[in-house]
């Protein structure tokens, strides 16, 4: 550990759902669920109002609807999340040159390089409060939970202790006192399977884990994890904060509280992840040749499989199709705790339509039809295709009524609530799905320049 609490971890609270509530006044203070909205969809993020009903990340959308049927189920708007994330990361980089993003909504910051007069607790606490206030300002009201400690491990734990909108600074010398009463599941990598193995050995808290020898831990959970748990239980973590490196791959992965066993659910997850990878590629003007999946089994065995295309692509359907094919070849019957999709072999060009195939399904469950009445089904293929373009939560603009967002669609009808982040809750109107006055709205920076 460092001699001072100089590692900061910032985590935006319920990020995707919070952005939706920020931009949709009628949803503020109400349950919001972001993720796949179809029958095989998977929850990406749930607002704290939805979490009160037991909705959580990686839960099937079907189960989430059963627990919280009155929530708003939205497909997500990656461009809005990316914009908010970029604003936050800019604030952090203004503070220190050593910023290590972990995802769109969280990052480590090395405060030893922040130019502070000292690294005493009052000084780093004041800086953390200032960062939280600046994040709230530049994002239009989003909140962040922050932990500051003498290591990355402890800073991340600290940021979780007072969520949402909390700040915990771990004073040097108090690290073990903080850790010991906590459940072993606070340690990264300790999921349900490891918790159960430790429980059988009579280990529930970090204090009890600390009393176990390294040899015994290796016997219980394996060599790699046993060594890691031995050191982390003693708050030993000397990993540095590593700033951005040149991008060599683009990937998305998720670790799940409960081991996944349903093959259809896993397929839906990698499909959604493939769509997010594709969006990131397109957003950075990149494409890639090699599609890979990462699967960590219930026993922490990690498997990777990849397939290389003859030319680069950023097509979500192509990436999703290959990812699902790779997943089908693996035995996941024992349960899966982590799934990920990535693309490497990056290039800045694409060979259009090289891999396009008739009949490919949409790359994301979120792109499928979500009727206002969930029991409704379109009565013809043309209506199904048209309504699929109106994903719930999508930003739209109407020639007469102005900007709004898709509340739902089905049977050739799209329903829109007309409001933005800067207006009061707005009215709801319904239109034909093929109404020429209704179109998708994109931020000005995404609009293509007119030809000269």
In a few lines, what is going on in this structure?
With 452 residues, this protein is of the alpha+beta class. Helix content is 32%, strand content 24%. The protein has helices at 15-23, 48-51, 61-67, 78-95, 121-138, 152-161, 175-179, 192-200, 206-210, 214-221, 223-232, 263-283, 316-328, 381-388; strands at 7-12, 32-35, 43-46, 72-74, 99-103, 106-110, 144-149, 167-169, 249-260, 287-297, 302-313, 336-347, 395-398, 402-410, 413-417, 428-432, 438-440.
Topology of this protein?
Elements: E1 7-12, H1 15-23, E2 32-35, E3 43-46, H2 48-51, H3 61-67, E4 72-74, H4 78-95, E5 99-103, E6 106-110, H5 121-138, E7 144-149, H6 152-161, E8 167-169, H7 175-179, H8 192-200, H9 206-210, H10 214-221, H11 223-232, E9 249-260, H12 263-283, E10 287-297, E11 302-313, H13 316-328, E12 336-347, H14 381-388, E13 395-398, E14 402-410, E15 413-417, E16 428-432, E17 438-440
Parallel strand pairs: 2-4, 7-8
Antiparallel strand pairs: 1-6, 1-7, 2-3, 5-6, 9-12, 10-11, 10-12, 13-14, 13-17, 14-15, 15-16
Helix pairs in contact: 4-5, 10-11, 12-13
Describe this protein's structure:
The chain has 452 residues and is of the alpha+beta class. It contains 14 helices and 17 strands. The protein has helices at 15-23, 48-51, 61-67, 78-95, 121-138, 152-161, 175-179, 192-200, 206-210, 214-221, 223-232, 263-283, 316-328, 381-388; strands at residues 7-12, 32-35, 43-46, 72-74, 99-103, 106-110, 144-149, 167-169, 249-260, 287-297, 302-313, 336-347, 395-398, 402-410, 413-417, 428-432, 438-440. The strands form 4 sheets. A 5-stranded mixed β-sheet has the order 5-6-1-7-8. Helix 4 runs antiparallel to helix 5 (121-138), helix 10 (214-221) packs across helix 11 and helix 12 runs antiparallel to helix 13 (316-328). The model is unreliable at 350-388 and 446-452 (pLDDT under 50).
């Amino acid at each position: 550990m460092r001699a001072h609490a100089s590692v900061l971890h910032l985590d935006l609270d319920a990020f995707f759902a919070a952005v939706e509530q920020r931009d949709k006044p009628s949803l503020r203070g109400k349950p919001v669920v972001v993720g796949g909205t179809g029958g095989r969809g998977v929850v990406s993020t749930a607002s704290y109002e939805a979490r009160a009903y037991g909705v959580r990340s990686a839960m099937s959308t079907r189960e989430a609807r059963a627990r919280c049927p009155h929530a708003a189920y939205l497909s997500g708007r990656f461009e809005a999340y990316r914009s908010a994330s970029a604003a936050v990361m800019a604030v952090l980089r203004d503070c220190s040159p050593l910023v290590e993003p972990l995802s769109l909504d969280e990052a480590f910051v090395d405060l030893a390089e922040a130019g502070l007069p000292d690294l005493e607790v009052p000084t780093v606490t004041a800086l953390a409060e200032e960062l939280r206030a600046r994040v709230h300002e530049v994002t239009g009201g989003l909140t962040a939970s922050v932990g500051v400690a003498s290591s990355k491990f402890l800073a991340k734990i600290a940021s979780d202790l007072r969520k949402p909108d909390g700040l915990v600074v771990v004073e040097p010398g108090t690290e073990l006192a903080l850790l010991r009463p906590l459940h072993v599941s606070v340690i990264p990598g300790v999921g349900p399977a490891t918790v159960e193995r430790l429980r059988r050995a009579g280990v529930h808290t970090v204090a009890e884990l600390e009393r176990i020898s390294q040899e015994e831990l290796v016997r219980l959970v394996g060599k790699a994890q046993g060594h890691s748990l031995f050191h982390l239980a003693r708050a030993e973590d000397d990993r540095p904060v590593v700033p951005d490196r040149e991008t060599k791959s683009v990937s998305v992965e998720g670790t799940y509280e409960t081991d996944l066993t349903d093959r259809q659910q896993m397929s839906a997850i990698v499909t959604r992840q493939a769509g997010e990878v594709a969006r990131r590629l397109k957003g950075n003007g990149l494409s890639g040749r090699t599609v890979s999946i990462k699967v960590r089994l219930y026993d922490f065995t990690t498997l990777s499989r990849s397939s290389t295309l003859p030319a680069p692509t950023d097509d979500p359907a192509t990436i999703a199709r290959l990812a699902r094919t790779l997943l089908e070849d693996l035995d996941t019957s024992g349960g899966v705790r982590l799934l990920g999709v990535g693309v490497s072999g990056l290039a800045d060009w694409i060979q259009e339509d090289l891999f396009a195939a008739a009949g490919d399904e949409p790359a994301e469950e979120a792109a499928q039809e979500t009727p206002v009445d969930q029991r409704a089904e379109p009565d013809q293929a043309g209506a199904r295709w048209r309504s699929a373009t109106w994903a719930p939560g999508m930003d739209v603009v109407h020639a007469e009524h102005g900007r709004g967002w898709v509340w739902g669609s089905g049977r050739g009808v799209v329903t829109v609530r007309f409001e933005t982040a800067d207006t009061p809750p707005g009215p709801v109107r319904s239109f034909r799905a093929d109404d020429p006055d209704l179109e998708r709205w994109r931020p000005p920076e995404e609009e293509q320049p007119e030809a000269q």
